[in-house]
Amino acid sequence: MKFWAKPYFDLYDHILSANGVPITLKYLSVIESHLQPNLVSWAGAVGPWQLMPYEAQRFGLKNNKYVDERTDFIKSTEVAAKLLKELYAEFGDWLLVVAAYNGGVGRVKQAIEKAKSKSFWDIQYFLPEETRNHVKKYIATHYIFENNGGVTTLTAQEVQQYFNVPAEQRTAITSADSTLCSVEISGRYNAALICKQLQILPAYFNQLNPGFAAQLASGKKYIMYLPKEKKNLFEATKQQILEQSIQQLLLGSPVAY
User: Fold this and answer.
1) Which of 8, 47, 149, 159 is positioned for an S-S bond with 70, CB 3.0–4.6 A?
2) DSSP structural state of residue 184
3) pLDDT value at position 159?
4) What is the C-alpha separation between 11 and 22, in angstroms, rounded?
5) Exposed/middle/buried for 7, CB within 10 Å: 0-12, 13-18, 19+?
6) Confidence of residue 154 (pLDDT cuts 50, 70, 90)
7) Topology of the domain covering 6-159
8) Are 163 and 170 in contact (CB under 8 A)?
9) Integer Cα distance of 7 and 229 in angstroms
């Protein structure tokens, strides 16, 4: 799937990014449907994002005996992105978003109330087995495709506790809002040089951009996330950064930050 699904993942990246949703949530579609557009679940969910009929209708997708737009990759991803953003506004925690996407908002709220906690790891056994396993499958799939975890595989508390970044930047990491922008790049950019030039903490940059070095090293383009206020500076200095990155690659010495 890492190879044949690339066109679908590229599509997901652009739509999720445009809606302010972390692009790694594309892996939710992997466990929902294995990217099969005509898949129908026992509950009546359809398409690559396994949307229920009432969700399709709520977001304006056609769903009748003649056409079911839940099978359309573009339209269903637009709806999934809006739904994920809506769920994040409700829970403020991406693991709870994945749980609610599978089991429903009501079940997650009930589990939170019973556990007296908002951590997935505390509430999981108050959720249906299918839902708690769904979240774990998402985490595992993220690790398989990215070779590590990320913002969407941590609880909100873990993000705040373990990321060594200022409070204002934590908000950018944990929120699906308009504080971030995406820039498509190619070439052997050095992450440390980007951080140094833009004055971004490396831990923050790495969490926003998992798999950065590996994808660029393979010759592929990469959609890089930056704080919006850093975009103009990057555009103005990107050629300089790239030249320095290539020189650094040839010299083989680490960048001092």
Assistant:
1) 47
2) E
3) 73
4) 13
5) exposed
6) confident
7) Lysozyme (1.10.530)
8) yes
9) 30
